[in-house]
Design goal:
alpha+beta, 7-stranded mixed beta sheet, 7 strands
Length: about 270
């Protein structure tokens, strides 16, 4: 279950609820309703932990606590949709970044841990439309598991000077690149995407894809496409790549042999 997908479903249900009962569902309403639900959640917690009189048995109290927790969580998810918040990115910023750090206290962080790009989750990444072939060369040189064929690497460097290009910058340094194709007005394709090895897992790739998707939507395009190595070729790195695209809403369409290399290519699309 993906958080943003679940948030969108709950948001749609909550909007229908507002339409049925004839009230304006604003962010203010969601915040006030959330405060109300948090009070009910606290009451349910006290009952479930035996610190307040329970009207039913232990199972009833635990179930009520679970449902009240779900109620409050649902309102938070609806609020994130109302405000246009990418909650998966924000959770990664606030919580999951610590998966990559052994220490928690700021005064105990090593130099390497301090250098980890947690700031990218907090707005430190700037996405710009520009071209930088040498940045592509530098980034793919640090990702040999994905870009280990010299001829293919040179193709990407050349493409970086010709195709539409989105660059991710942190403190002025290029840390990610997306190259795009518009074969038809109705669609767009991610031709290439790579994030500097030191900034992987920091949401940079998602931000690059989001920037391209926003432009496609603004031009009334209906579909976004990407090609990657297919699942019949066993490789942990490309398995992670497919998971990345799936998390962004891409769906697998077809695996084709010998399309753009000597192995299987998976075509994935995302309806817009």
């Amino acid at each position: 279950m993906r958080i943003n997908d679940t948030a969108a479903r709950i948001d749609a249900i909550n909007r229908r609820y507002a339409e049925i009962y004839g009230f304006e569902r604003s962010s203010d309403w969601l915040m006030l309703k959330l405060q109300e639900e948090l009070g009910e959640l606290a009451d349910a917690y006290l009952q479930a932990t035996g610190r307040q009189r329970d009207k039913g048995g232990d199972q009833d109290a635990r179930e009520r606590f679970a449902l009240e927790l779900a109620d409050a969580t649902g309102l938070l998810l609806a609020l994130s949709q109302q405000e246009g918040i990418d909650l998966e990115r924000a959770i990664a910023a606030k919580w999951l970044v610590w998966d990559r750090r052994e220490h928690q206290r700021d005064d105990e962080l090593t130099d390497a841990e301090r250098a980890m790009p947690s700031e990218t989750y907090r707005g430190g990444v700037e996405i710009v439309r520009d071209r930088d072939p040498e940045a592509v060369r530098r980034i793919i040189a640090g990702l040999p598991s994905w870009f280990g064929i010299p001829a293919a690497n040179e193709h990407y460097v050349t493409a970086a000077s010709e195709r539409d290009s989105y660059l991710a910058r942190v403190n002025g340094a290029i840390v990610g690149v997306l190259l795009a194709d518009r074969h038809f007005p109705e669609s767009g394709e991610i031709h290439f995407i790579a994030v500097d090895a030191g900034h992987r897992g920091a949401g940079v790739g998602r931000m690059l894809v989001d920037a391209f998707e926003a432009e496609l939507r603004a031009s009334d395009a209906s579909l976004m496409q990407v090609k990657t190595v297919g699942p019949s070729f066993a490789d942990e790195g490309y398995a992670a790549t497919r998971e990345f695209y799936s998390a962004l809403g891409f769906l697998p369409v077809e695996e084709v042999e010998n399309l753009d290399w000597d192995g299987p290519t998976l075509i994935m699309v995302k309806p817009l």
